[in-house]
Design brief:
Blueprint (H helix, E strand, L loop, with lengths): L1 H10 L3 H31 L2 E6 L1 H8 L10 H7 L2 E6 L2 H12 L8 E5 L5 H4 L19 H6 L1 E2 L2 E2 L2 E13 H6 L9 H11 L1 E2 L5 E2 L13 H6 L15 H16 L12 H10 L4 E5 L2 H5 L11 E4 L1 E2 L8 E11 L7 H12 L1 H9 L13 H6 L3 H9 L1 E2 L8 H16 L5 H15 L3
Parallel strand pairs: 1-2, 1-3, 12-13
Antiparallel strand pairs: 3-12, 4-5, 6-9, 6-10, 6-12, 7-8, 11-12
Helix pairs in contact: 11-19, 18-19
Length: 441
């Protein structure tokens, strides 16, 4: 009714007043047009999606390397989305992510977090993804990966990338000792490691097994072989002294038999790599992607002879294989202003076809069905072994504020048990007591 009355009033105004009214209407129309233009610009800006990530993840999505191409190019074009990439190294990336989630609002729409930074405090700053992922079957993502980034029964991050450890072994050295296949239990692996140890024909020491004893994570496979952990997924300290004692006893046995390098507690990745190249190390526990490095014809004396397999568990364990893993997950900050588009992006990262394409670009797929795709099988010589390892992958310790201190105490006691400064039983008890203290329990 008001709109009709205005039209009638305008019809009977004197000419001079019509002119004034016209000017006012023109001004109002101008303001409306300006507002519409701003709204249109805002709509275009809403199609910008800002991502805080690591360069390796960006490369696996954009196709900087590999054969998968630009994985999300079609989605971007179809939805008129511009991806604004912000990349950083691991520590500054997580510092920035934590700062952004502490603000009243953030310009970061999607972030990426490494499992070792996914504390319960950190997870509280992210949007639950359960509703976002409704209707998307992610049952081929290992439950352990999902548990690690869940809080109060809600999924706070979507795992999208892993790096998992494996057992690399020199087939030529095994053949020299009449061994044509790896054992299927950790107990059998210990005996093989002892058999492979000794001296080569020229007197060079050869060690059956090598682990990175310079950092806590380098030895976690041995713990997991017996089902030992330091905490559960939410950071509650373990009380299973027996499992940890068994792991320490096995480590001490390997060391005493000369199956581990005498300086393994100071032997890092570079030294292990040199040992594998020169045939001084018969088996090494390292991530799967070291396969290409170990078989580098320009550097290795055994190029083409180093194969890789999933690490076997001890007898009686629920999974035949175990593996230490690190996992990157996508998160949506709870204070993000662009959650709907961010959700759509996260869903794209879990799309089975996109996962395969990212794998072809060098990503470690957390969806284990990706390893069954013929394109992945053709591209990755160890696809089957890596799938086995991922299915058995576990986290030995969940992140918490004093995790660095806890890992230092683990490393100290592990080394003491290995070289005989403590009994396995005492070292295990001391380890778990130190973990509980560091965790505030």
């Amino acid at each position: 009714m008001a709109f009709s009355a205005a039209r009638m009033t305008n019809a009977v105004q004197p000419q001079g007043r019509i002119s004034a009214m016209t000017r006012r209407k023109a001004y109002a129309i101008t303001l409306l047009a300006a507002g519409a233009a701003l709204a249109s610009t805002a709509a275009l800006q809403a199609k910008d999606l800002t991502l805080l990530t690591h360069a390796a993840i960006q490369g696996s999505i954009t196709g900087a390397s590999g054969t998968g191409g630009d994985v999300l190019a079609g989605w971007q074009q179809e939805n008129d989305v511009n991806l604004n990439w912000i990349t950083a190294d691991i520590a500054p990336l997580h510092d920035r992510l934590m700062r952004e989630t502490s603000l009243s609002s953030t310009s970061i729409d999607v972030g990426f977090i490494l499992d070792s930074y996914a504390t319960q405090a950190a997870l509280s700053g992210f949007e639950p993804l359960d509703d976002c992922l409704t209707g998307l079957d992610i049952s081929d993502i290992p439950q352990t990966f999902l548990d690690q980034v869940s809080q109060d029964g809600q999924l706070k991050a979507l795992p999208i990338r892993h790096a998992t450890t494996a057992l690399h072994y020199n087939k030529a050295l095994l053949a020299e000792h009449g061994i044509d296949a790896l054992p299927d239990t950790f107990e059998g692996l210990i005996e093989v490691a002892k058999t492979l140890s000794g001296k080569s024909d020229d007197g060079t020491p050869v060690y059956g097994l090598s682990i990175d004893g310079t950092n806590a994570g380098g030895t976690y496979n041995l713990l997991m072989a017996y089902g030992a952990t330091l905490t559960d997924a939410q950071g509650k300290p373990s009380t299973d002294v027996e499992a940890l004692t068994n792991a320490y006893a096995a480590l001490a046995d390997l060391y005493a038999a000369g199956a581990l390098p005498s300086n393994f507690t100071a032997m890092g990745i570079d030294q292990i790599t040199q040992g594998v190249w020169q045939g001084r190390i018969a088996m090494a526990v390292q991530p799967f992607n070291r396969y290409l490095t170990y078989n580098d014809a320009s550097k290795s004396d055994y190029a083409g002879q180093v194969d890789v397999a999933a690490f076997p568990a001890a007898e009686g364990q629920p999974s035949p294989y175990v593996a230490r893993t690190t996992v990157w997950s996508a998160v949506i900050p709870a204070n993000s202003q662009n959650k709907e588009l961010a959700c759509d992006f996260v869903r794209q990262l879990a799309d089975p076809e996109n996962v395969v394409l990212m794998t072809l670009n060098g990503n470690g797929p957390v969806r284990t069905d990706a390893y069954l795709d013929q394109r992945v099988i053709d591209a990755i010589p160890y696809a089957q072994a890596e799938q086995q390892a991922v299915l058995g992958a576990k986290f030995v310790i969940a992140p918490f504020d004093q995790i660095g201190r806890a890992q230092d105490m683990y490393l100290e006691n592990m080394q003491a048990a290995a070289i005989g400064l403590k009994t396995p039983e005492q070292a295990a008890a001391d380890t778990l007591a130190a973990i509980a203290e560091a965790a505030g329990n």
